[in-house]
Amino acid sequence: MTTSQATPSTARPLLIAGVCLAWLLCAFAPLLKYLSHPKAAAAMAIGVLGIALGMYWLQRLNRTQRQIHFAWFLLLFALFTTAFAVLHPRSLTHPAGRSSDREDALQIELTAVTHHQYPYDFRTFLGNKPTPLPGALWLAFPFFAVGHVAWQNLFWLALFSLFTLRFFRNRATALLWLAVFLLLSPANFNDFISGGDYLTNFFYIAIAVCLFIHSLDRPLTLCIPTAIFLGLTLSSRIVFVVILIPLLALALQRTSRSRALLLFAIALATAAAITLPVFTPHPLHRLLLQLSQGSDKLRFIPAALHPQQTLPLLAMLIACVCFFVRMDLPRLFLAFSISSFVMLAPFVVTVAMHTGNLSNFSYLALSTLSFSLWALSRYEFMAKVDGLSEH
What we know:
The protein is mostly helical. It has one domain. The protein is built from 16 helices and no strands. Helix 6 packs antiparallel against helix 7. The radius of gyration is 21 Å and the shape is globular.
């Protein structure tokens, strides 16, 4: 057996283990919160076994090059819609210790903006200052205008489901990803049905990046709108800025340098035009204050390390590796997963170690979702190679 033949058999178990670990990172905290330790351990074991069996079934199906029926996606979306309709009203009752205030953050910010007030002077029902940046407000406003800001979750889930069909080669892979990391992931599912926008932020940044990449070889009349949309989504949460580095590396490999820089300038100008006016009359000062309000989460990291500066810098340096490798969309998500993990994991782990609070593990959803997109894309590619070799 040659090395090239042995590599897939070695990599496949690693990919399965990586997908299981990505699911566990977002699943174990809510399971431990709501279940006894033995029941939580049993639930995690069942989940890992189910994912492994699902990926084994996926490999066999994808090797046949058969596509499952689109009706399965309609059924899954119907399940999400039903769960949202039933459970979202209950989440609005704010039961002690079980609620998320992410929807409330959007509501109070949008209410303040429509009354010409500074949106970051208010607090949610949990006493937290709101964190969504102006881009998230723009994208949520149409739903706020009709009285239900949480409805944006259903809208962006529908579009993101279409994105997965474009991203993966096989419908079965897309369906497995949506089921495992959205429906069967307690933290992500709770954020979705409670009206939170953290998951939705990832949905529309992924869609924006995909549209931007696929427009690179199209006329400028199509490229510019995708660059504007990218800039709008970038202004939702500051962590997404790091995705620009692998995206730039990919763009420079797909199109001319002048065209890539022009489109990036449009995206950044759009983000600035959307963001800075909200923070007037002192936009830079107020923006920096807003971005630094989460610095208390870094309090358990030694101050001598200056984590507020060094962690983003380290993440950006890691992302710069993309300029030295052949890039594609799955590798872009892999780069973003690693970079975002470098920024988010230190405070998540240190807070958990010092306080026992595991709820911050939900912040790693951006990293785990991105990693799993890459891992399952790579996994189905191996199945395709196996299928071709058999024929």
